[in-house]
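Newbie here. two chains, one complex. Structure please?
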Amino acid sequence: MATHFVIDGLKAAIDGKEILKGINLEIKGGEIHAIMGPNGTGKSTLASALMGHPKYEVTEGSAQLNGEDLLEMEVDERARAGLFLAMQYPSEIPGVTNSDFLRSALNARREEGNEISLIKFIRQMEGKMKELEMNPEFAHRYLNEGFSGGEKKRNEILQMMLLDPKIVVLDEIDSGLDIDALRIVSNGVNAMRSEERGFLIITHYQRLLNYIKPDYVHVMMQGRIVKSGGPELAERLENEGYDWVKEELGIVDETVGQA
Amino acid sequence: MSTQLSTPTDRQSAEALARSKGEPNWLVELRGEAAELAGTIGWPKPEKVRIERWNLTAVGSYEQPTAVKAISELPEIVRELVSEGTENLLVQRNSGSVWKQLSTGLANKGVIFTDLETACKEHGELVQKYLFQAIAKDEDKLTALNAALWNGGVFVYVPKNVEVELPLQAILYNDNSESTFAPHILIVADSHSRVTYVDCVVSEPGTAAAPFVHPSIVEVFVKPGAHVRFGSIHSMGETGVDMTIRRAIIENDGQMEWIIGDLNDGNTLSDTKSILKGQGSTSDAKVISVGKNAQQNSLTTQAVHFGKNSDSNMVTRAVMKDSASAIINGITKIEHGATKANGVQTEKVLMLSPKARGDANPILLIDEDDVTAGHAASVGQVNPEQVYYLMSRGISKQDAERLIIYGFLAPVVSEIPVEAVRGQLQRLLERKLEG
């Protein structure tokens, strides 16, 4: 089945404060959507609410992936249904090696008794690590512990490549990356482009979009998508900033939920 | 019912028992004095745990051991612990040794590995030089009780410059709560020798349902340049009270490693101390514990630095379930004159239930200026951010928590030197964490 992801009227709150004020978005397999916007406009909240971060409460709306509402599911079920979020700040988990973690994640998608063989797993993992120019020793390091910002981001992309999701959300994947790492991470994402998979890229720099060409660009302000367009919109934002959007829409303060 | 006495033993019966076993006079005397002391001095007083409220009197009575002819005669709980193909194994059942074996290669090099009772008879002079020299019999009621009653036990002697490649293994088990189960383990590693010793202390579940006490002492002497690795897993049933005091005296450039798994189901007092007497001596202690039900655990690690350039590291990790509690004390003491000493300690408790209790008390006592020391302590619950992260990759909540808990214990588990014991520790951990 071709991937079809529909976010409909999504509202979410943190500590009782509404941050997302009704998000509507449709992503089909093969499409890359970018969400841009200044800090504090709700972009990362959208990513966290979709994945089911315990701090965010969804108050209204749905997010259907191929007809199933992800928001009705537990976090792990959303992942197994095909959602992947590359996080802005991945957790560090001492004592759990990267490879044990990855194998557990792969096996969570398989029936008991049908676990991936160790050899096959290692071959897959090492192949993808090579593509991402990761030092093989990272397989045996504890998950994200002591990783630099760039290493963590690469590790997120490694997980994406191994888990083969249907919908990928990249939350500020470009922050903290130097040009080389940005190129490697972008190559990893581009290699995963397929008709079966949709992408939602959250960023506030146009820089990333030079490497990963979006089909659609959306601007988020005050917890809503306020403007949508094609790749040319991203370029204009890069050149002229966000002020013209605010002016056009009569927005004074673009942020949401700030104290 | 077990023997319940307000004073667990007296001079007369301790001496009579010692004589009936044909123990040398010096030992009969030691036991008599200790029995008398046990009636007059108090129990140890660890921080925030009142052990005198535990059932400490069920010391039982002596049970004559019957040797087995083959390992296959030992019960399942013992056999599954035996390191495959080992030639160096000692087994104590209740009050005495029932199996002992040492490879001829090691015996020819002068290595002694036997039960302590036999050693007192066959190597009396050597044993007398060390027995109750690291831990005095009159420190408290526990040490006195062990001195009066100890039985079976283990004696290891490694001569100068001898390196024992394969681990020496002991298994000490209790399947009769009415018998006295009070091992004393004495290890002497002579200059520039090297040895790994591993033991497991277990009780047969079901049959040991009545209360029993395991008052146990471990003394280790690390002579100049020697290296001792000591691994120990305790996994006794919930009716047992485990009180184990371990102490090493480390001379110049000696190295001591402790790896302790306190996985009993009953109340546990565990105190592991290194005395860094010599220059350049080092000690590394790693302790893990898992508590469940209403179990109380008092876990102490200590390092006392006398030697210049001595170095100590102590790590304790405890996971507490249900309403179990762990009071963890880490004491690093650096004496005046121990210049350039370095002492580091970390205590961490992970609580899996709102009723579980954990307390980490790092203590640094430093009487010398020219030293380095550090400590870290934390007490907390499983981090929900970590659970969320793992779940976001499709891992179930239960498996996510499991990974985090095992990861928390990994720094100690991965260090267990004998594979069979490491495997057993994994099994015991799983049983305790998931049972």
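Moderator note: Chain B has two domains: 11-277, 383-435. The first strand of chain B starts at residue 89 and ends at 93. Thread marked as resolved.
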